[in-house]
Amino acid sequence: MKPFLKFAKPRIEKEGLVGQLGLVLLGICAVLVGLMAIFSLGAQKQSEIRSTRAYGKQICGVLATAAAVPLSNHDRETLEALVRNLAARQGLLYAAVSNSAGTILTEANRADFSDKVPVYSPISHGSRSQARMIQSDDQEIVSISAPVVFEGRQIGTAQVAVTRTGPVFEPQQFSRFIGVVAFVAFLMVGATYAYLRLVLRPLPKLIRELKRQIHDKSVRGIHCGGRGQLRELTDAWNDAVRVFHEKIDGVDQANSQLEIEKHVLEYEKSRVEAIIGFLPTGVLVTNSSGRIAMANRAAQNLLLKTDSQLLGQTLGAALGQEELDETLEDNRVIRTLELSLGGSAERVVKISITDLSTPGAGPVGSLVTLREITQQKMADRMTHEFVNHVAHEFRTPLASIRAYTEMLVDDQVDDESTRLEFYNTIAQETERLTGLIGNLLNISKMEAGSLMANRVPVKINKLISEIAGGLKAQAVAGGLAFHVDVPDPAPPMQLDKSLISVALVNLVGNALKYTPSGGTVDVSAKAEGSSFFIRVRDTGPGIKEEDLLHIFDKFYRSSNEDIRQRPGSGLGLALAQQIAFIHGGEITVTSTPGEGAEFCLTLPVTAAKQAAVEIGAEQ
């Protein structure tokens, strides 16, 4: 058996499901043969019992009929002879006849069964025969009793005990029968197995193909033959694969379309982000939950925060004012507001909020624009201050001119010297008004772009000395030490003499005006390379760092109270810077608060030879 098992196991494994079905069918066949054998044995036994019982009833009936006359005549010898004759029959183990009182008159008994045969009590005339099974070690015995009737009257009881007279099937016949049944069963199993193997032969190939597809992570059709439902299964699989590939193709096309749309959207998004990123106006985009989703460079520079610091923040947190979120949430009408941002210098920002929405849906976010209006606010404030100051500047000389004129017109001044003094005062105040109006006109021309330099050959050292000489009286009146150091000779230059004079007067005049008594003002000039430098240094209060960024702005005046108390319009330095630009130069300033300031007017030395020739020709 061991070699067979060693051979059968790989064979079964090779056959797979078909081999397993064969084993199952073989087991079912063995079980059926066993059940059939058990059923046959049971049927044989039942048949033997029925046969034995019928045989016993027949013998007992014969005995009861034959014993009626001898029993009625009390012919004991005849009864005994009758019982002996019956006892000689095959299968009869016991025979007896008893009278109506139950006394046994005669009996024939085999010694080995005497203790197994029960004695029946008399039965009534109307009763049928009674049968009872008696179990034995090697055979089954049936005990039967029947009434003995003579002339319609029961006169006794006949009793017999019989066993089977012969087997229904002989052992050889039974073995042959079982063999035939087993042969037929195995034939049927073999035929069934052959049919199943024929039908299921493509199944291992189908399984291998499916495993290969799983390993390759691919889905494709299967062509492995087969019959019946296996063929239907492969056809259904192929139909499912075809539908699957059609769906996959549709999904691939949809994905390709989505990829194209995604690239287009990403391109458009990158374009929009690039455009927004380079906008000079700060732009913030918030999502539906009010969190910042995008911030351009202008917004980052304005809020002094990086992109990572702004993303995910609320508008109030980004601006440093948490209460703003609650204000905007409570009042959805607010869409434009102005806020002051903290920092080293106060900055004012104008915020505009626009809701972003999609068709058929509510707001999906907001577009927030930020525009710094600090300069505008300062300009407005300075314009207001300038108007007030100009009005004051106009009012003072006009009031003097009016007063002196009225006194002169009314002949209230008799002294000629006093009258002459009044005339001089009127002339000075008129000149002052004329200068102020001239500055305003020059500023207006500069803003309109119509202020042009009328360049002529100029001796710059002589021009500086003349301007310094004209301002020396102011220095003496203010108790200042005033020094002028200019080169002689100076390089020839082509300049607009009147404009340069205005610039120098403003620079030197400011130094003299803001330097306290006892201070010093130095004016120096020097040519270096292709540039000519004119420096005006004072020992005044100096300029604060935050003021240095704005001193050349129109109408700007320092927040220092000592400086603001001095008369001025805030136009002088702005005008001087524009004049320097017109000539291709610039004005720079360095200052330390409390130690004074130094202004440097840089002018280019151009066409030096030509200028020298022209100056020589003039001379």
- Described by the principal axes of the CA atoms, the overall outline is rod-shaped
CATH class of the largest domain: Alpha Beta
Task: Provide the spatial order of strands within the biggest beta sheet.
Answer: 2-1-5-4-3
- Please report the distance between the alpha carbons of the first and last residues: 143 Å
CATH superfamily of the largest domain, please?
A: PAS domain
Compute the number of helices.
19
Radius of gyration: 69 Å
Q: How many distinct folded domains?
A: 4
Average pLDDT, rounded to a whole number, is 76
| Classification by helices and strands | alpha+beta
CATH topology of the largest domain: Beta-Lactamase
Helix content: 40-55%
How many β-strand stretches?
Answer: 17
Unreliable spans:
1-14, 607-619
The CATH architecture of the largest domain can be given as 2-Layer Sandwich
Strand content: 15-25%
